[in-house]
């Protein structure tokens, strides 16, 4: 018998809870505990951790969204509540990730409107929800305050904190007990640095999900893949400032040349395969939340992930 | 236990005859120590040296060559578990499968597709690698005819012959026996006959077992029978099973804990029930020969791109030659966009510029392959570099205006570039995706 695999890991990945059910003071029908892995992804003899979660991304202003998705999903994209409902009931996502793209409009100032948007989505779906706030430093503080407040008790995941902008999002997370996404530009040291900054202002480890930033397949994905592997490796070797679950969102996938110019009748298939290949590779590197924008990606991705969680099952060839 | 270069050197003949291809016995010893050379290259080794060095100096995973001619591919000779530890060297061969129950014209079409299809990305031509012919008819004669059909196309693609029946393989080898086809597969039942065939034709051979012990036993039998070029089929029952055992094989091989597992891994994606996902997992998790039914265009491109990404050397960013590049047919009034020579930056920007349909010039400056952000941080991108590049590439003769658009992340340098060059600097967006909108709105003003 060949020797057992032993990598000498010392520390499991930390856990983060997403969503709060009735029992925990929220209204979600399910909550997830992600993380907890004790070795490289999919190598556990008896899997004790769940398969990675699939988040479907929607937005409140589709003029900033991929035409491929708008075409495929149809009119529902112009009604964010209906879209959230569909992501949950029809597309079969585990999580809904709402991007507040309305804040991208020039001179956007109607922050008061965002609270009802978040509340609407939380009513439309009872899945745990990720909220992506603004990209505009001037209104950040107000935006995150509104999101945090609107989702009070629901244990949201708020995005996205970066080295230059993490205070307002951290404040909202701390005030309303939400978790946050901490994004760094494809660099393990910067990821660690940001986590330390967050720790210093009081955000606990079990409220942080690392986003090492995912370049689209063919456009820097290899750097993201290795950053994820290195983060997972360091965490298992005992670096507690990196021992958090990771999220992968290859947001540029639908705008790259290969997908954009795939030609009539092939765009959807190409978009789905590009998302599928990216998500599967990211899952093997350690990502525990996989974000997709094309509804057609969800079913094949879920099927493959289920297969990856089934280890002790050889084909029976002697 | 690996030997140090000096220990190995003591056992070498010390003739410095250069017949191994190295200038001295010492440099050869250093290569052996790093698993970068094969002991057989030295013709003057004593038997004692051979027995001591044999197991410890060969590369931990054997290099196996499949096919002959310009399209042959080599797999194996990997040294790490993670690409960031060094790099992955030999990208998996992705092989399209036909069966001997398909019509001849279908078989010909698939063969031609593998021969002709090329995806050009980041300056490299990406292709599929070979044709696998599977004997599902149960007839040796039908199988041989299918192989003959493939060979008649004269595509000279590396063949993989799949059959449980050695008589069928024997019949097929009449048509491709001299082309180093990969034979699939030796199992407990047929290993002796398969070895005889592989040895007769000098072919690499796949050994197939659902357990690591089983593989080790088959490997021992084959090597003892004089068949050294082996590939391991793990016969995975699930994706999880594949990831687990493929990782185990890689780990046990590179640490030399189980030298008999030091061979490349084979994966038949077509028999997993979810082929596209299997191809993706084969690429990232140590697959070296991946057999698949012909992939539809979407997954074909995604597979070639993922393979290119994973097998790019992480220590050497792919670089563009610095200079002036044109998008469309720019004239004297067209905009000029400056950026770095990191190929990914170049091709991303170029893609968005093409779709913006604004003819323009790209001024590519030499940051030694660093991206904009890192080049600014490391001081590689400076006003002097921009000034010298404008002069060196004769940008002043290309346009009549003196306006330069720089990347958003280079904005801290804007004032200094203006002072050094005398050109008016316009700061573009940080994200290349926004360049089209930027040119339409800002440049037209």
Automatic annotation (TrEMBL), chain A:
Gene Ontology BP term (one): methanogenesis
Phylogenetic placement of the source organism: Archaea, Methanobacteriati, Methanobacteriota, Stenosarchaea group, Methanomicrobia
Protein source organism: Methanoregula formicica (strain DSM 22288 / NBRC 105244 / SMSP)
Domain CO dehydrogenase/acetyl-CoA synthase delta subunit TIM barrel: 15-260
Source organism, top-level taxon: Archaea
PANTHER family named among the record's database cross-references: ACETYL-COA DECARBONYLASE_SYNTHASE COMPLEX SUBUNIT DELTA, PTHR36214
Name of this protein: CO dehydrogenase/acetyl-CoA synthase delta subunit (Corrinoid Fe-S protein)
Keyword set includes Transmembrane: no
Keywords: Methanogenesis
TrEMBL record, chain B:
Pfam families on file: CdhD, FeS
GO BP term, example: methanogenesis
PROSITE patterns reported in the protein's UniProt record: 4FE4S
Residues in 4Fe-4S domain copies: 1-59
SUPFAM superfamilies: Dihydropteroate synthetase-like (SSF51717)
Keywords: 4Fe-4S, Cobalt, Iron, Iron-sulfur, Metal-binding, Methanogenesis
Listed name of the protein: CO dehydrogenase/acetyl-CoA synthase gamma subunit (Corrinoid Fe-S protein)
């Amino acid at each position: 018998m060949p020797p057992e695999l032993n990598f000498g890991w010392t520390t499991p990945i930390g856990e983060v809870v997403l969503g709060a059910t009735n029992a925990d003071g929220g209204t979600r029908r399910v909550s997830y505990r992600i993380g907890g892995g004790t070795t490289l992804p999919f190598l556990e003899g008896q899997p004790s951790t769940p398969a990675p979660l699939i988040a479907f991304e929607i937005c409140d202003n589709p003029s900033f969204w991929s035409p491929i998705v708008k075409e495929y999903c149809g009119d529902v994209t112009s009604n964010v509540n209906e879209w959230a409902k569909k992501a949950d009931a029809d597309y079969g996502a585990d999580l809904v990730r709402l991007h507040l793209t309305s804040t991208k409009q020039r001179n956007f100032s109607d922050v008061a409107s965002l609270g009802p948007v978040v509340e609407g989505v939380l009513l439309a779906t009872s899945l745990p929800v990720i909220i992506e706030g603004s990209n505009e430093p001037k209104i950040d503080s107000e935006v995150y305050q509104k999101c945090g407040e609107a989702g009070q008790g629901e244990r949201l995941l708020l995005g996205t904190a970066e080295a230059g902008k993490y205070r307002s999002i951290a404040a909202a997370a701390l005030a309303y007990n939400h978790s946050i996404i901490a994004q760094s530009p494809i660099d393990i040291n910067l990821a660690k640095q940001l986590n330390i900054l967050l720790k210093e202002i009081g955000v606990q480890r079990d409220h942080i999900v690392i986003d090492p930033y995912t370049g689209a397949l063919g456009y820097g994905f290899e750097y993201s893949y290795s950053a994820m592997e290195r983060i997972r490796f360091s965490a298992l070797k005992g670096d507690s400032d990196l021992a958090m679950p990771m999220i992968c969102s290859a947001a540029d996938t639908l705008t790259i040349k290969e997908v954009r110019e795939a030609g009539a009748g092939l765009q959807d298939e190409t978009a789905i395969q590009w998302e599928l290949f990216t998500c599967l590779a990211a899952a093997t590197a350690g990502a525990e939340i996989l974000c997709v924008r094309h509804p057609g990606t969800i079913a094949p991705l879920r099927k493959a992930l289920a297969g990856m969680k089934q280890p002790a099952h050889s084909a029976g060839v002697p | 236990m690996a030997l140090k270069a000096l220990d190995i050197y003591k056992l070498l003949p010390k003739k410095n005859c250069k017949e191994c291809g190295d200038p001295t016995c010492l440099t050869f010893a250093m290569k052996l120590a790093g698993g970068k050379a094969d002991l057989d290259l030295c013709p003057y080794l004593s038997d004692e040296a051979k027995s001591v060095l044999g197991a410890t100096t060969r590369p931990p995973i054997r290099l196996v060559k499949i096919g002959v001619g310009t399209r042959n591919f080599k797999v194996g000779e990997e040294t790490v578990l993670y690409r960031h530890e060094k790099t992955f060297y030999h990208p998996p061969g992705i092989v399209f499968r036909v069966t001997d129950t398909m019509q001849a014209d279908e078989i010909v079409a698939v063969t031609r597709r593998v021969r002709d299809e090329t995806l050009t990305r980041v300056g490299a031509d990406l292709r599929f690698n070979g044709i696998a012919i599977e004997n599902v008819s149960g007839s040796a004669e039908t199988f041989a005819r299918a192989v003959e059909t493939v060979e008649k196309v004269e595509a000279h693609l590396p063949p993989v012959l799949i059959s449980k029946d050695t008589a069928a393989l024997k019949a097929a080898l009449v048509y491709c026996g001299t082309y180093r086809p990969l034979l699939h597969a030796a199992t407990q039942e047929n290993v002796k006959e398969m070895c005889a065939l592989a040895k007769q034709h000098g072919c690499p051979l796949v050994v197939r077992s659902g357990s690591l012990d089983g593989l080790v036993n088959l490997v021992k039998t084959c090597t003892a029978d004089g068949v050294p070029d082996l590939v391991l089929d793990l016969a995975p029952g699930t994706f999880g099973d594949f990831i687990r055992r493929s990782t185990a094989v890689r780990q046990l091989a590179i640490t030399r804990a189980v030298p008999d597992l030091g061979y490349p891994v084979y994966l038949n994606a077509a028999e997993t029930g979810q082929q596209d996902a299997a191809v993706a997992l084969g690429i990232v998790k140590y697959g070296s020969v991946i057999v698949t039914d012909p992939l539809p265009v979407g997954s074909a491109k995604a597979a070639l791109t993922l393979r290119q990404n994973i097998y790019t050397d992480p220590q050497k960013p792919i670089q563009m030659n610095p200079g002036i590049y044109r998008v469309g047919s720019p004239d004297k009034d067209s905009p000029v966009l400056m950026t770095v020579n990191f190929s990914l930056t170049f091709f991303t920007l170029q893609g968005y510029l093409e779709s913006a349909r604004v003819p323009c010039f790209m001024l590519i400056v030499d940051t030694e392959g660093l991206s904009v952000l890192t080049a600014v941080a490391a001081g590689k991108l400076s006003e002097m570099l921009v000034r010298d590049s404008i002069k060196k590439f004769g940008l002043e003769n290309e346009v009549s205006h003196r306006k330069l658009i720089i990347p958003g992340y280079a904005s801290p340098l804007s004032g200094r570039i203006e002072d050094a060059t005398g050109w008016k600097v316009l700061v573009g967006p940080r994200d290349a995706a926004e360049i089209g909108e930027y040119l339409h709105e800002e440049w037209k003003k």
